[in-house]
Design brief:
The protein has 192 residues and is mainly β. It has one domain: Porin (Beta Barrel). 0% of the residues lie in helices and 81% in strands. Strands 1, 2, 3, 4, 5, 6, 7, 8 and 9 form a nine-stranded antiparallel beta sheet that branches.
């Protein structure tokens, strides 16, 4: 078996990824929105290899085509469209290297941009909000080095945004919601 140092996981890397994500928003006053969408983006990070152990950190930026549509409860039930993109994360990572394989776990902070377009039964816009929220993200993955510098990876990640708050334009009420996102990520990294 090759030693961990035979493959260049150590040091700085950057890459690109594609993601299939299943997103669901549950409103505190009832109702939910759900959509499966594709993400694409870039990541960068660094690894420190100590024997077979890996310590490091990674940050990524992803753009999504997800468009969650359904009913959202402002004053009554409104037709609602919501986009959840882009998403930015910063995460420490820890892992285990064996030969040209890296197995790792990761978790940290995520920032998501939300855009909400809510309309009443007559089509009149009630709310058109744009804002960003901070949440949490965690997951695990595997990376395989194809040579000394190029690696391919697969990763599962769960992201959660708690008590995302929306203002109603028809009265003084507020509506909060929770966003859950399950994502499968496929990517490639170039190591330096």
């Amino acid at each position: 078996m090759a030693q961990a140092g035979s493959y260049d996981f150590n040091g700085i890397y950057f890459g690109a990824h594609a993601v299939l994500a299943d997103s669901e928003i549950d409103f505190s006053k009832g109702g939910s929105l759900e959509d499966k969408g594709l993400f694409g983006g870039f990541q960068a990070g660094f690894n420190v290899i100590d024997g077979n152990l890996m310590y490091g950190a990674e940050s990524d930026l992803s753009i999504s085509d997800a468009d969650l549509s359904g009913t959202c409860p402002y004053k009554g039930s409104l037709s609602c469209d919501m986009t959840v993109s882009p998403m930015f994360t910063v995460r420490p990572r820890v892992g285990y290297v064996t030969g040209n394989w890296l197995f790792y776990a990761t978790g940290g902070v995520a920032v998501m941009h939300f855009e909400v377009d809510a309309r009443d039964a007559g089509g009149t816009r009630i709310n058109n909000a744009r804002f960003s929220e901070i949440g949490l993200t965690a997951g695990f993955g595997i990376e395989h080095m194809l040579g000394s510098t190029v690696g391919v990876k697969a990763e599962y990640r769960y992201s959660y945004f708690d008590d995302v708050e929306f203002d109603s334009k028809t009265d003084d009420s507020k509506v909060s919601a929770d966003l859950d996102m399950h994502a499968i990520l496929i990517g490639v990294n170039w190591h330096f």
